[in-house]
Amino acid sequence: MKRYDIAAIGELNVDVILNQIDGFPEMGKEKFAGQMLLTLGSSTAIFAANASSLGPKVCFVGMIGKDSFGSLVKESLEAKGVATDYLIESPSAATGATIVMSYDEDRANLTYQGAMDIMGFDDIDQSVFENTKHIHLSSLFMQSALLRDIDKVLDAATRNGVTVSLDTQWDPAEKWALDYKSVLPKITIFLPNEKELQALTATSSLEEAIEAVLPYLGCAMVVKMGSKGSLLVRKDGSRNMLPSFLNRNVVDAIGAGDSFNSGFVSAFVKGLPLEKCQEIGNMTGALNTTAAGGTGAFTSPEEINQRAIKLFGRTLDL
Ligand SMILES: Nc1ncnc2c1ncn2[C@@H]1O[C@H](COP(=O)(O)OP(=O)(O)OP(=O)(O)O)[C@@H](O)[C@H]1O
Ligand SMILES: [Mg+2]
Fold this sequence. Notes:
Layout: E1 4-9, E2 13-21, E3 33-40, H1 43-54, E4 58-61, E5 63-65, H2 68-79, E6 88-90, E7 96-103, E8 106-112, H3 128-131, E9 132-138, H4 144-148, H5 150-159, E10 163-167, H6 180-183, E11 189-190, H7 194-201, H8 206-213, E12 220-224, E13 230-234, E14 239-242, H9 256-269, H10 274-288, H11 301-312
Parallel strand pairs: 1-4, 1-9, 2-7, 5-6, 9-10, 10-11, 11-12
Antiparallel strand pairs: 2-3, 7-8, 12-13, 13-14
The protein binds adenosine-5'-triphosphate and magnesium ion.
Adenosine-5'-triphosphate (ATP) binds near residues 229 and 246.
């Protein structure tokens, strides 16, 4: 028996969300926002919080600063049942923060990476590789030290028989400096979205992108395709396209991809077949769109199942 089902390795930051802003920022001028929300940000944190709400035992491996934003991050993870014993406090760097300026449907983000950018392999308490069944890695391009050390992390997972899922997320610098031919064979489940897969492989269609990665897949890939659903591609080339569970009353799709990942990986660590993991991923992706933000729809297992019955006529079966 391992202490954790899932160790989420990724970025941590707070979001300072400004709503009802009276125009766009201008040099030398002052604008006002009508509302502000200070909350736990980061896509890996949404993944970890939601996976924890679905049942698995989840811990987080990430770096924060010794500051009040760091305390907010730690307390918010703990409130979601995510273990924080593997969090690292940098003695010098500040906790990352994203200023989110919301304008109607769109958001302009400005991120200070801080501590998240300096966590490398040597900073990680190596016992995590013995204490977890599975590692979920996310947002690689927001974390330059982790990106640099990716092979070391994956080799440690392999040595300890730990399965790995990876969602690189978008590369803000659009350099896509990840050698997928050497990295993907060490990833059990690769979880890109359509746009990211094409950018990573420098291809211009989904078909070309699938062909590019297929020879290198560890076990399988799931391509997330927004309201179209998801496409499971196994190492042997077999596929399963699964349309999304349509939610006619979408509140917002913030974090839908992370919620998909949390459902898929929670089912995977229970040993469910890949098609079932995909189905649960589509369900948790759709559930995400029924409430504001990335974690609003994922409170307790009971409430999640109530929402699922309302939306799909059945529970998640996790
Ligand atoms: N409008 C929607 N209705 C129902 N299901 C949805 C909707 N949008 C997304 N989903 C589900 O959530 C999954 C993941 O969403 P999406 O493809 O947007 O991921 P992503 O691009 O990685 O998102 P993110 O911006 O959160 O990283 C989809 O595969 C789908 O199953
Ligand atoms: Mg995503």
